[in-house]
Design goal:
Layout (H helix, E strand, L loop, with lengths): L1 H34 L3 H6 L5 E6 L2 E10 L3 E6 L3 E6 L5 E3 L17 H11 L2 E6 L4 E9 L3 E6 L13 E6 L3 E6 L2
Antiparallel strand pairs: 1-2, 1-5, 2-3, 3-4, 4-10, 6-7, 6-10, 7-8, 8-9
């Protein structure tokens, strides 16, 4: 019986060591997989969820409605929608722990294409820049790295005396583009 007890004990020790090694490998793989996940992957996994996004121009709170390769749209309760360039996100709250590296953005196009669509729509917008500037009007055109806003009151057409000027805003300076109305 003593030999059986000894062998049983050795077998239990071996099984425990194998179990500990397997758990260590799982933990290491989990850490390695998490290290491959970017913050925008976590945003992509949260489309449809409510978030609190901080930008240099202030907070944007609401539901992530859409996502492109370098921008997101947040539907703000009572305010409409806001395009936030990924480069303007200072921090974001409300993301779950879930992330899926395989998740692809809902839209494959970049910020320029999204802004050109807004320009074609001719809706009045409020463009907030990273320095705290606010430019209200209509996006007249979108270049390769900037947009130009025709400045006018949100309730007026961009014509004649309603136009107070034009403002060029480089994409790198855009914090938020909010649709007005």
């Amino acid at each position: 019986m003593r030999w059986d007890d000894l062998f049983d004990d050795l077998e239990a020790q071996l099984a425990a060591a194998e179990r500990d090694e397997a758990l260590a490998q799982v933990a290491e793989r989990t850490r390695a997989e998490r290290a491959q996940v970017g913050w925008f992957d976590r945003v992509a996994a949260a489309v449809g969820e409510s978030v609190d996004c901080m930008t240099p121009a202030g907070p944007v709170q609401g539901r992530i409605a859409d996502l492109g390769k370098d921008w997101l749209v947040i539907e703000e309760s009572g305010r409409g929608s806001a395009i936030v360039p990924a480069s303007a996100v200072v921090s974001i709250g409300g993301l779950g722990r879930r992330s899926d590296k395989a998740t692809t953005p809902a839209r494959r196009f970049g910020l320029g294409v999204a802004l050109r669509a807004v320009s074609r729509d001719r809706s009045p917008v409020a463009v907030h820049d990273i320095a705290g500037g606010l430019w209200v009007g209509t996006i007249d055109f979108v270049g390769s790295d900037h947009l130009e806003v025709v400045l006018h009151p949100a309730d007026a057409l961009p014509r004649g005396a309603a136009v107070s000027g034009r403002r060029v805003v480089p994409w790198s300076s855009i914090a938020i583009v909010r649709r007005i109305g």
